[in-house]
Amino acid sequence: MTDADLAWTALEPFEITFAPPFLTARFSAPQRTLGWSMSRPGFALAREIVWVEVRNADLSLDVDPDAFLRAKLASAGCPEALAFMTSRDISNHHVRLSHAEDVRAACLTTVGLSNGERVGARQRDRVFPGTINTLVHVSRPLSDGAFVEALSIAVQARTAAILETRPAQDEKPITGTGTDCVIIAAPCSGPPLRYAGLHTAVGEALGHAVYEATHEGALAWNAEFLG
What does the DSSP 8-state code read for residue 63? Predict the structure, then answer.
């Protein structure tokens, strides 16, 4: 864990706990979320978001991944958590804070790119483990529409970071991986923001946090696996 990670643990909006094979972001109060995590996708209320590190042998063809994940969460004492699974070493997690006007955003992500895909195409004959799992929290409540818009901004930011860190020789660089997951989290109480697009403070803050965290994670993965 880096000095930045250690400093982060004392800051709102969530505390990070690193205890392999689990990486946990824990809020002091339940937050409203929207995303497509493996557990409880769509809109949900959650206090914990958990990354579960897995190896290829953990998920052989005879293993039900949903049952495997439920058992892992139960063993960690957080059966109701929203959860990601990743083969990326979860010690390689990246956090970034950002703010615009009166809105603060915080992103925690793990970046693995061995399962890279380009939008509009599928590599049907070779699928490898490796994914980008992203949590981003904003400090203001969001309407349903703003949640959806915020999710689109987070995906834009992630994709921009991936494109801008790919090797120059890539003629058609990947735009993500086939198993990426994103969760947006926001407070439950208070008047919700109606919009969260690129022209808004919340869009700027969350986009910057996701971009910076993903950019750092992609560079780290490239250095480790592409040399």
Answer: S
Cα 226 to Cα 200: distance, rounded to the nearest angstrom? 37
Helices (H), the chain: 3-8, 65-75, 144-165, 201-225
Q: Residues near 19 by Cβ (< 8 Å), separated by ≥ 6?
A: none
All domains of the chain in start order, with CATH: 3-225 (3.60.70)
**What CA–CA distance (Å, rounded) separates 129 from 89?**
12
Q: What is the pLDDT of residues 60-75, one digit of tens each?
A: 888 898 999 999 999 9
The rounded distance, in Å, linking the Cα atoms of 137 and 153 is 13
Q: What does pTM read for this prediction?
A: 0.92
Question: What is the Cα–Cα distance from 32 to 91, expressed in whole angstroms?
Answer: 27
Question: Residue type at 203?
Answer: G
Q: Shortest CA distance to 42 belongs to which of 182, 202, 194, 149? A: 182
